[in-house]
Write a structure and sequence with these properties.
The protein is an alpha/beta fold and about 260 residues long. It contains 11 helices and 10 strands. The chain has 2 domains: about 200 residues, Alpha-Beta Complex (2-enoyl-CoA Hydratase, Chain A, domain 1), CATH 3.90.226; about 45 residues, Lyase 2-enoyl-coa Hydratase, Chain  A, domain 2 (Orthogonal Bundle), CATH 1.10.12.10. The strands form 2 sheets. A 6-stranded mixed sheet has the order 1-2-3-5-7-10, with helices on both faces.
Length: about 260
């Protein structure tokens, strides 16, 4: 499929999605959100893709936010529907069975920060800036920011960022756990691709089940979450990947996983 606002490359089992609205600082409008949703539906079903990277075009912005020009005149009903679409897309990304890495090459504000929060791992360039500045516009975060940010960095820090509408740099984002890694801007994609390659070399079913255990386990109490983990651990032993992985270890060779 041809996309208007996305660029899509497939490289060694990694899908690289570039949000391509440079004149609008890659802001998320309805079409872009729908294209992201469509793309991730395809990734989930494509066995050739093991990892997905999301980044933004240009050097200034990952995603500078939702498209304010498009939002300004929305009615109450239209605004609610726009927020629901944003939530659907972020959940679609979060629920994708394959790991999703955000390569944050610049501003990740508002909807852009929320898009990064929907990813599993966040690698930030040194020039990246994060924030939820919606209160400066008289609104609240609408694509999951009040919920995912709080779960990731804690209630107090999330409240400070959201109430103040302030931006933080990549170093501070790393310090508080919002970014997993900070790298020079010119090394961002290379580092992110290397991380994706490392993940891709592991058992794909095991990686997907690990993601499932982490996401679903967070919604359970510890006892039930551990029981859930044990069930998924047992399920691994019905796969060819488990047999290959353990045999390769004992034979001191590189495993050749098939995802079966």
């Amino acid at each position: 499929m041809t996309y208007e606002n996305l660029l899509l490359e497939i490289e060694n089992g990694t899908a690289i999605v570039t949000i391509n609205r440079p004149k609008a600082m890659n802001a998320l409008n309805e079409r872009t959100l729908l294209e992201l949703q469509n793309a991730f539906s395809g990734f989930a079903e494509d066995d050739a893709i093991q990892v997905i990277i999301i980044t933004g075009s240009g050097e200034k912005a990952f995603v500078a936010g939702a498209d304010i020009a498009a939002m300004q005149s929305l009615t109450v009903l239209e605004a609610r529907q726009f927020a629901k679409l944003g939530h659907q897309v972020m959940r679609h990304i979060e629920a994708c069975p394959k790991p999703v890495i955000a390569a944050i090459n610049g501003f990740a504000l508002g909807g852009g920060c929320e898009l990064a929060l929907g990813c599993d791992i966040r690698v930030a360039a040194e020039n990246a800036r994060f924030g939820q500045p919606e209160v400066n516009l008289g609104v609240i975060p609408g694509f999951g920011g009040t919920q995912r940010l709080t779960r990731l960095i804690g209630k107090g820090r999330a409240m400070e960022l959201i109430f103040s509408g302030s931006m933080i740099d990549a170093a501070e984002a790393y310090r508080i756990g919002l970014a997993n890694k900070v790298v020079p801007h010119d090394q961002l994609l290379a580092v992110t691709k290397k991380m994706a390659s490392t993940i891709s070399n592991n058992g794909p079913l095991a990686v997907r089940l690990s993601k499932e255990a982490i996401h679903n386990g967070l919604e359970l109490d510890l006892e039930r979450a551990n029981q859930y983990e044990a069930e998924l651990f047992g399920l691994c032993f019905a796969t060819a990947d488990q047999k290959e992985g353990m045999q390769a270890f004992l034979e001191k060779r590189q495993a050749e996983f098939t995802g079966k």
